[in-house]
Specification:
By secondary structure, the protein is α+β, with helices and mostly antiparallel strands. It has helices spanning 3-24, 61-77; strands at residues 31-37, 43-50.
Amino acid sequence: MTRKRTAIKMWNFAHQVCTEIAQEAPELDCYVLDIALDANNNPLVIELNPAASSGLYANNAIFLFEAIATYAEAAQQANRIV
């Protein structure tokens, strides 16, 4: 599988999982989803953590969360699920 096809497969899987989370637990609106491929190249969820636990500790948290919020607002206005 090429890198591009793998990336698309993972993106689609993550979108599907996030859509299900949004339907089942709408209060979970800011998180990090860790996914991987199993031995058969099937995507699976490794863990779900609060965004503050995303491992981006060396970044400027204010800029990071402002960027996330800006994207989320734009996505909502475009009727996309974040």
